[in-house]
């Protein structure tokens, strides 16, 4: 996906002039509200002197209204949700009331001019005409938006409270003006945006269907890694609920460089984070979090083998059994759990702060080629577990050499390596289907032979 959203109907840029609907499953599918509700666009004829008519199209029904702010469009398979956190320009003023136009408060834009205004009482299914010059206006906004009143300041304050992201940036974020908002591609679960202001830049992720708990777990992980002062991570600022459902997280925006940077530096700094991030509570984390969209149970335990067996491998095996009816992988996997203790003989295991999901998509380099790690699934565990996604991280010899200078390699490291890969193969099996089952089963079978279990 490019760094801009393209309308799924007209293929033009989503720039905020018309609002937008976004898919609740496909993070990169967005449609202008004008395009999604095209049947409500009036053709501009007979402005005066004729009573309004019902212009509902009878032959083709381009969309079904599922609920308030949710439609099913004939061009897409999934529900589309009215997006309230959409791009806007603070310099664009309503020509009727002189207030700034932004987000879902923009009701319509003329098809034939730049005239725009607030209108709070028009429902998606209604069609209104205005006898002003030769303008045609499509009112495509929610019925529960506040009507304009003569008390302009009060109306603006109400609008502020309905947009917690904007409110935080302009208050606690100490910015006077949001100058630009750009979409950022790459994620498969959340929508991501870059907010630029006159003072700073912020990275914002939103999810329209999941509550704040997911982002709270991410924020606590980012904060824990940030506090080690070892490797660069974006500093989290704010997590909250969206007024129309879902949640958001605001964090520091880091501008990335064009190169992959120095793998040795990544290895060294990851080792420093593992060395600095210790827990007196044992293995686990302050809250449950997610790896991808899979829940990650982090209840504290004093025993790493028990924690990894039950709360990592065991949880994924139960998911596979319950989701796919896969009793074979469940039974073999539990045989491995019951016999894997011998793989940890003569190993000193201390609870280290782990990123938890360290693959190439969560590793970047800033403008100074310093490594940055993102989107964590943090917990305190055996340091070797952070190599569990190495099969799609591209770690080379220089990475491991630098890492082991900080955190020396323990006896039996090579024998345990696949055990930590297994957790992530099982998670991918549960998330994405049977394509990952064979890799997980191969690891389980190899260990059962090795352990004679």
From TrEMBL:
Q: Which residues form the DC1 domain?
A: 3-36
The entry lists its GO molecular-function terms as: ATP binding; kinase activity; protein-ribulosamine 3-kinase activity
Q: Which GO terms describe its cellular component?
A: cytoplasm
Q: Which UniProt keywords apply?
A: ATP-binding, Kinase, Nucleotide-binding, Repeat, Transferase
Indicate the family of this protein: Belongs to the fructosamine kinase family.
Reactions the enzyme catalyzes: N(6)-D-ribulosyl-L-lysyl-[protein] + ATP = N(6)-(3-O-phospho-D-ribulosyl)-L-lysyl-[protein] + ADP + H(+); N(6)-(D-erythrulosyl)-L-lysyl-[protein] + ATP = N(6)-(3-O-phospho-D-erythrulosyl)-L-lysyl-[protein] + ADP + H(+)
Lineage at the top is: Eukaryota, Viridiplantae, Streptophyta, Embryophyta, Tracheophyta
Q: Which organism is it from?
A: Arabis alpina (Alpine rock-cress)
What is the purpose of this protein? Initiates a process leading to the deglycation of proteins. Phosphorylates low-molecular-mass and protein-bound erythrulosamines and ribulosamines, but not fructosamines or psicosamines, on the third carbon of the sugar moiety. Protein-bound erythrulosamine 3-phosphates and ribulosamine 3-phosphates are unstable and decompose under physiological conditions.
What name is this protein filed under?
Protein-ribulosamine 3-kinase, chloroplastic
Instruction: State which Enzyme Commission number(s) the record gives.
Output: 2.7.1.172
Q: Which Pfam families match?
A: C1_2, Fructosamin_kin
């Amino acid at each position: 996906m490019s760094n801009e959203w393209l309308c799924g109907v007209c293929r033009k840029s989503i720039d905020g002039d018309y609002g937008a609907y976004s898919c609740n499953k496909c993070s990169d599918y967005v449609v202008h509200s004008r395009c999604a509700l095209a049947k409500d666009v009036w053709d501009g004829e007979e402005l005066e002197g004729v009573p309004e008519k019902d212009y509902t199209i009878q032959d083709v029904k381009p969309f079904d209204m599922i609920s308030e702010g949710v439609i099913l469009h004939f061009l897409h398979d999934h529900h589309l949700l009215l997006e309230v956190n959409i791009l806007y320009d603070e310099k664009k003023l309503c020509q009727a009331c002189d207030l700034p136009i932004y987000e879902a408060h923009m009701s319509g834009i003329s098809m034939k001019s730049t005239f725009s205004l607030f209108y709070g009482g028009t429902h998606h299914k209604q069609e209104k005409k205005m006898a002003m010059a030769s303008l045609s206006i499509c009112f495509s906004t929610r019925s529960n938006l506040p009507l304009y009143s003569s008390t302009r300041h009060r109306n603006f304050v109400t609008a502020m409270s309905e947009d917690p992201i904007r409110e935080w940036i302009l208050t606690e974020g100490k910015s006077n003006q949001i100058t630009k908002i750009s979409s950022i591609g790459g994620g498969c679960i959340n929508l991501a945006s870059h907010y630029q202001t006159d003072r700073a830049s912020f990275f914002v992720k939103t999810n329209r269907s999941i509550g704040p708990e997911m982002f709270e777990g991410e924020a606590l992980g980012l904060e824990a890694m940030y506090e080690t002062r070892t490797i660069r991570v974006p500093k989290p600022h704010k997590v909250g609920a969206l007024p129309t459902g879902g949640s958001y997280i605001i964090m520091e925006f880091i501008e990335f460089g064009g190169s992959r940077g120095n793998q040795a530096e990544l290895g060294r700094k990851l080792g420093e984070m593992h060395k600095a991030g210790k827990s007196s509570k044992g293995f686990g984390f302050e809250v449950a979090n997610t790896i991808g969209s899979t829940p990650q149970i982090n209840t504290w335990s004093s025993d790493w083998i028990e924690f990894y067996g039950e709360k990592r491998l065991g949880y994924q095996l139960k998911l596979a059994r319950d989701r796919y009816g896969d009793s074979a992988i469940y039974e073999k996997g539990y045989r491995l759990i019951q016999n894997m203790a011998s793989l940890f003989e003569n190993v000193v295991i201390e609870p280290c702060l782990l990123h938890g999901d360290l693959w190439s998509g969560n590793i970047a380099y800033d403008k100074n080629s310093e490594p940055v790690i993102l989107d964590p699934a943090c917990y305190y565990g055996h340091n070797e577990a952070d190599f569990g996604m190495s099969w799609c991280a591209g770690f080379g010899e220089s990475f491991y050499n630098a890492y082991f200078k900080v955190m020396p390699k323990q006896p039996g490291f090579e024998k345990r390596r696949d055990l930590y890969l297994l957790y992530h193969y099982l998670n991918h099996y549960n998330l994405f289907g049977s394509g990952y089952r064979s890799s997980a089963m191969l690891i389980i079978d190899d260990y059962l032979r090795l352990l004679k279990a």
